[in-house]
């Protein structure tokens, strides 16, 4: 197979994505509009005249020298099960070299390992275990292992262990399988605390509704409250307006805003994104006041049910770290997500290919010090 990589139009890129069961929302043309501070291009892999792969490339240009980091978050969308990944990656690298990239960073959307909820809970409870990766997985994807080995052989640099959320898109996520499961089965698969909190919210009169762009200011107010409470830097309101407008322009049902109220007070709010059969919990926020009414559980349960109703086969609660150390500041987040009864999923993660080693070394040092 001899593949060629060349730019494709936004319409071609959208049509290709639509032909797949799902791709990451970070690999949609609309995402380039959200990340407007980056340059961008859509590229396609051609086998003769047939478009067989696609990717969104974000270009982070270095000032004054005109070179860029070429970044494909959770992509590209190619045949990652191929025995010859070089046939796919080499023409992409050649194209990006011509675009003056000093390095390429990709995030292979390939699962390596899965751990069921019971296995994850056992790892958390085991005082001798510090990382979920130390526990035997319930499922090992041999195609993912083959892809990882090929990347190493081809000179790509693997992600560093222990970087948590600092390495870009998360390597470990938590997912709830939805395919062929009823609402009753999904609820029964949750732990007792989740079921009790969902019932408690309903009994207290918590209502969950879908919002619009006009509700983003209210969402952002409690999002910034959450950021102060949980010690992270919030994104500005303008970011969420751009995100909703860009994703909605591509597909009217690409993104939704959910609001949980109690007696007229907004107590939790979330964003939900779906591409084909994959739905993601994207951003979440809750107030310190009225936390006893469990708005966060109520809004998650509504999103899970709506994802199933929309035809999604997986509900993705996004990133976790792989640490199960009881002193880790993120352990509460893992425990919250594992209560849904889903699976810890390890992806291939983000890999770098330096094309200009001095520039790459300087950029890598900057990222590690930031």
From TrEMBL:
PROSITE patterns: FEMABX
InterPro entries documented for this protein: Acyl_CoA_acyltransferase, FEMABX, PG_Glycine_Bridge_Synth
Gene Ontology terms: biological process: cell wall organization; peptidoglycan biosynthetic process; regulation of cell shape
GO MF annotation, one: aminoacyltransferase activity
Database matches in Pfam families: FemAB
Protein keywords: Acyltransferase, Cell shape, Cell wall biogenesis/degradation, Peptidoglycan synthesis, Transferase
Homology family: Belongs to the FemABX family.
Protein name per UniProt: Lipid II:glycine glycyltransferase (Peptidoglycan interpeptide bridge formation enzyme)
Taxonomic source organism: Microlunatus kandeliicorticis
């Amino acid at each position: 197979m001899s593949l060629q990589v060349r730019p494709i139009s936004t319409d071609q890129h959208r049509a290709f994505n639509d032909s797949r069961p799902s791709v990451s929302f970070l690999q949609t043309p609309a995402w380039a509009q959200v990340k407007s501070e980056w340059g961008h291009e859509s590229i396609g892999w051609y086998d003769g005249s047939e478009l067989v792969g696609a990717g969104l490339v974000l270009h982070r240009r270095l000032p004054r020298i005109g070179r860029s980091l070429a970044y494909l978050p959770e992509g590209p969308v190619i045949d990652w099960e191929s025995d010859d990944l070089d046939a796919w990656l080499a023409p992409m690298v050649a194209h990006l070299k011509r675009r003056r990239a000093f390095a390429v960073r990709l995030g292979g959307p390939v699962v390596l390992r899965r751990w069921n909820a019971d296995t994850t809970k056992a790892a958390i409870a085991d005082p001798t275990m510090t990382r979920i990766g130390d526990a035997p997985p319930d499922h090992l994807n041999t195609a993912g292992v083959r892809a990882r080995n090929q990347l190493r052989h081809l000179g790509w640099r693997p992600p560093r262990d222990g970087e948590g959320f600092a390495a870009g898109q998360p390597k470990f996520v938590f997912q709830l399988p939805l395919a062929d499961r009823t609402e009753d089965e999904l609820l029964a698969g949750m732990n007792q605390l989740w079921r009790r909190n969902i019932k408690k919210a309903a009994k207290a009169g918590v209502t969950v509704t879908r919002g619009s762009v006009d509700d983003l200011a209210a969402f952002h107010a409690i999002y910034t409250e959450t950021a102060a409470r949980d010690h992270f830097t919030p994104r500005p309101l303008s970011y969420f307006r751009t995100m909703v407008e860009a994703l909605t322009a591509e597909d009217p049902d690409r993104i939704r805003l959910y609001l949980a109220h109690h007696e007229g007070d907004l107590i939790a709010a979330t964003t939900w994104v779906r591409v084909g059969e994959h739905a993601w919990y994207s951003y979440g926020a809750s107030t310190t006041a009225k936390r006893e009414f469990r708005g966060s559980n109520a809004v998650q349960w509504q999103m899970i049910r709506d994802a199933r109703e929309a035809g999604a086969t997986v509900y993705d609660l996004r990133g976790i770290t792989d640490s199960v150390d009881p002193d880790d500041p993120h352990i509460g987040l893992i425990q919250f997500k594992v209560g849904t009864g889903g699976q810890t999923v390890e992806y291939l993660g983000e890999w770098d290919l330096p094309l200009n080693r001095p520039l790459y070394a300087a950029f890598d040092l900057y990222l590690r010090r930031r």
